Amino acid sequence: MSDEQNPYQEGKRAGAHPLVVVFAILLGLWLFVALIVPSSRNKQATGTEGPAGPVVEDPESAPVIFKVQTSITDMNVVAIVVPPEATDSQVAGLLKQLKSERLAGTLSDHIPATTPGHQLGDHAVADIYVFSDKQYAGVEALKTLALGAHAPGTLLPRAIPFEVTMEEVRGHYRIDLSDTGAPDKGSLGYTDESGVHSKRYRSIF
Q: Per the UniProt record, which residue ranges are transmembrane (predicted)?
């Protein structure tokens, strides 16, 4: 008989201790999570796809400078222009700023009256469009937007198609004080009452 001891002798444990096995499994799971599953800190915040998704805003973004390009009182429309390098966060911040001014009664300091003399105020009804390209902030483009996607082709200005103009809208602030449930509506991009919306459309408020 060999002098070697049988590893399965009575009273002696065969293999690794159960606690060692448990710790090894836990360590393996931790390494899997840490190395393979992306950390939420490394994920790019892109916002939810679709027309009703939230806007990812940068609280550190500086206020954007804008210029009033066109105002059409008969249509209750104002077009303002921001620099092309303005970010979506800055445009969203601008629309929120305009809403705050409307609530404070100081919107007329920066935006021409769309309903002068109205009992509900100088901006009882208003469509404020934000563009980066001033050629789309003119009268023809604004008339195209006002007529909407479903207007007969004979009514639309031929120079600027609706589909092109819609995609050039950086932001849209709609005021309707007769709608007590939702007097202020703001968005990146553009949408009309029928639900037609631009590719960049995101609701802000």
A: 16-37
* The pLDDT of residue 45: 38
Integer CA distances (angstroms), 41 to 32, 37, 38, 44, 169, in order:
17, 12, 8, 8, 32
Domain chopping of the chain, boundaries: 67-203
Q: Where are the beta strands (DSSP E) in the chain?
A: 67-72, 77-81, 125-131, 169-176, 184-188, 202-203
For the sheet containing 125-131, what is the strand order? 67-72, 77-81, 125-131, 169-176, 184-188, 202-203
pTM: 0.68
13, two tokens: 């444990």
Identify the pLDDT of residue 138: 93
Question: Helix, strand or coil for residue 168?
Answer: helix
Among 115, 29, 109, CA closest to 68: 109
**Model confidence over 15-24: pLDDT tens digits?**
566 777 777 8
- Rounded Cα distance between 4 and 98, Å, is 88
pLDDT digits (tens, 9 = 90+) for 27-84: 877 777 666 655 444 443 333 334 444 444 555 567 899 999 999 999 999 999 999 9
Structure tokens at 126: 């208003």
Beta strands 125-131 and 77-81 are parallel
